[in-house]
Design goal:
Length: 414
């Protein structure tokens, strides 16, 4: 660790190893600035931050520093749909067109909310490039989204809807919410304010620039260097312009450090906040969701085994398990103490999830983006340390259950 690296925050008794691993991220794993937080059994047990807020310079990462978390945003967006489901406004198994009649164009009449949120709708691409100005006009976006034609028969395969899943979720919330709020506003009023979260989907202009970390972005040169430690096929999909994964960014040239980009709502990719806020949100769900009005029926739908249309993600080129907007434990991203866990990773290494069986909410964020699609060594070391601490502190029976990963059933493949 650089002698000038400052680590601040707290860990509860028994979680000291998490602090040690966080220090190792700076000493051995090239960390610039980062934060990690965990809530166990409803109580905050880890809240650490450190390093630099900017890749160059010496501005410290402070307690209230926020950072754009890329696709971790998808999990927070999925929470808004869960709230709508719990209130009876949104049926996961209903056709989207029953809420949004214009959506039925071009072969989408029978596409269900569940298929969209499982990345099975085939709506990965758009027929025109996006701009920040277009994203500001939600009525324009609704017309654009409604006319799209699926890239494959919906429900027959799945492929990561990199940006579009959040755009469609945005319009769904506007349609089912009696007040017709945007997804970002809905999240703020129905989740962030009740829980006291520093997290935004659509960053308010009044948030000072000094609170926002500067991201060291992914580049083609860094991607070529990353071929030494990441799967070649996947890394090439991330850096080759013509790949389906790259095309799934739908022409949006988005600089994660551009304030104008952060101020519009991109519910699949531009949420800004703290690790503490994200972990707290997932903790609310891990505790059953009653703070937010989540019903046992809605939580059971979220935690049920995902039924995937084929094992391989045709966009990422790897097996992946998604359900109701969340990533679920699977062959390449195994997380949580049971298959009931759910969360969302973000490009570059960030990750957050809820583990209802362990009663854990966890989040890791950083400003140095790397090319791991899952299990970034920085995040994985912290997550594993949290689970080792829980295993030591839990009852022997409970500890044995969480330590036994071999008994987990696989997700169902249709």
């Amino acid at each position: 660790m650089n002698p000038t690296t400052r680590i601040n925050g707290l860990v509860a008794s028994g979680f000291e190893e998490v602090h040690a691993e966080f220090e190792r991220n700076f000493a051995r794993r090239g960390e610039i600035g980062a934060a990690v937080a965990a809530y166990w059994r409803g109580e905050k047990v880890v809240d650490l931050w450190g390093g630099r807020r900017t890749p160059t310079g010496n501005e410290p990462w402070n307690e209230d520093t926020m950072v754009v978390v890329a696709s971790v945003t998808k999990g927070l967006a999925a929470m808004t749909l869960a709230v709508a489901n719990a209130r009876g406004w949104l049926d996961y198994d209903a056709p989207i067109a029953s809420y949004w009649p214009e959506f039925a164009q071009n072969g989408k009449t029978g596409v269900t909310v569940r298929q969209l949120l499982g990345h099975e709708a085939g709506l990965v691409l758009l027929d025109e490039p996006l701009t920040i100005a277009k994203l500001r006009d939600l009525d324009y976006m609704a017309r654009l989204l409604a006319r799209q034609t699926p890239a494959w028969p919906p429900g027959t395969r799945h492929g990561y809807h990199t940006l579009t899943i959040g755009l469609y979720a945005q319009e769904l919330i506007r349609r089912v919410d009696p007040s017709h709020r945007s997804l970002g506003r809905f999240f703020h009023e129905e989740i962030a304010v009740p829980l006291g979260l520093d997290f935004y989907i659509g960053l308010p202009r009044e948030v000072p620039a000094e609170r926002i970390a500067t991201v060291r972005p992914l580049t083609m040169w860094r991607g070529l260097l990353a071929l030494r430690y990441t799967p070649i096929a996947v890394t090439l999909k991330m850096i080759v312009p013509g790949s389906l994964l790259r095309r799934s960014f739908v022409g949006l040239v988005a600089d994660p450090n551009d304030r104008a980009y952060l101020e519009v709502e991109v519910p699949a990719g531009n949420g800004v906040g703290t690790a503490r806020a994200i972990a707290r949100a997932y903790s609310a769900f891990a505790e059953g969701g009653t703070e937010l009005g989540i019903t046992p029926e809605t939580l059971a739908r979220i935690t049920a085994p995902p039924v995937m249309a084929g094992p391989k993600d045709v966009v990422l080129g790897l097996p992946s398990y998604f359900s109701l907007g969340f990533l679920r434990p699977g062959p390449h991203q195994d997380f949580g103490s049971s298959p009931r866990a759910f969360g969302a990773p973000g490009a570059g290494g960030s990750f957050a999830f809820a583990d209802p069986d362990a009663r854990l909410g966890f989040a890791f964020v950083m400003n140095k983006l790397d090319f791991y699609l899952e299990n970034d060594p920085r995040e994985k070391a912290l997550r594993d340390a949290v689970y080792r601490a829980i295993a030591r502190l839990a009852t022997p029976t409970r500890a044995a259950k969480m330590a036994d990963a071999s008994k987990r059933p696989r997700a169902l493949v249709a």
